[in-house]
Amino acid sequence: MSARIDEIAPDLYRICLYVPAFDLQFNHFLVRDEEPLLFHTGMRGMFPAMREAVATLIDPASLRWISWSHFEVDECGALNEWLAEAPHATPVCGEVGAMVNIADFANRPPRALKPDEILGTGRHRFRFVPTPHLPHGWDAGVLFEETDRVLLCSDLMHQLGDVEPVTSADVVGRYRQAFETYQRSPVLMDYVPYTENTKRQLANLAALRPRTLAAMHGSTFVGDGAAALIASGEVIRQVTSGSAATV
Ligand SMILES: [Fe+2]
Ligand SMILES: [Fe+2]
Q1: Residue pLDDT, tens place only, 175-184
Q2: pLDDT tens, residue by residue, 102-111
Q3: I need a labelling partner for 136 at 20 to 30 A (CA). Which of 17, 155, 179, 183 fits?
Q4: How far is the CA of 134 from the centre of ligand 1 (A)?
Q5: What gap in Å lies between CA 217 and CA 61, rounded to an integer?
Q6: What average pLDDT does this structure show over 136-144?
Q7: CA of 74 to the centre of ligand 2 (A)
Q8: Among all ligands shown, which has an atom nearest to the Cα of 215?
Q9: Does position 245 have pLDDT exceeding 80, yes or no?
């Protein structure tokens, strides 16, 4: 397994591992800054490939912050491997995740971010926005890089296939296609719940006016991130309810 690495925004690198069995890319984002940040650790089985990829950008031992959206193996499965590799690295996530998962799971205590708290890495500032149950998980949240307006958006804008690193194409259409494919699966269905909070949370993220949506699965989207986020809410509503699959 070898990674493809692309700089998708200043100092922000997308490290992509494509898994043919799932026809799915797993993207991890490294911020090369005074205090380097890795967003998404990858699974434990991906650690050797990820370590090799990160080592082409920074000394892996110099990692200072390790973050993710919600507690799942692609988000933070290799957290302890990274903590062993990087002696000064600290896990950083929202207060819920820190309390219910990471304080026990991680081999070092986490930094717990409050809503809208800023994580500074040097030249870059990341705002933490909790998004409970969006895309899924009580502990879910996202980081927003304020200078270049990059939203590290986890499973939002999920796309299937070994797609290009960056696109300005119809990412919402691709999201609908991926979501519909999962909804037809007896195992993967109900991937993202639709609740009365879903559109409000997406509107909160849209209000940040992101220019770049750094998706965990699929291409990074560059364009009107706010419009894409708002439109994705209707996709979630329609696909989960089984209504109006094509609008
Ligand atoms: Fe997820
Ligand atoms: Fe994911």
Answers
A1: 999 999 999 9
A2: 999 999 999 9
A3: 17
A4: 9
A5: 26
A6: 98
A7: 6
A8: 2
A9: no
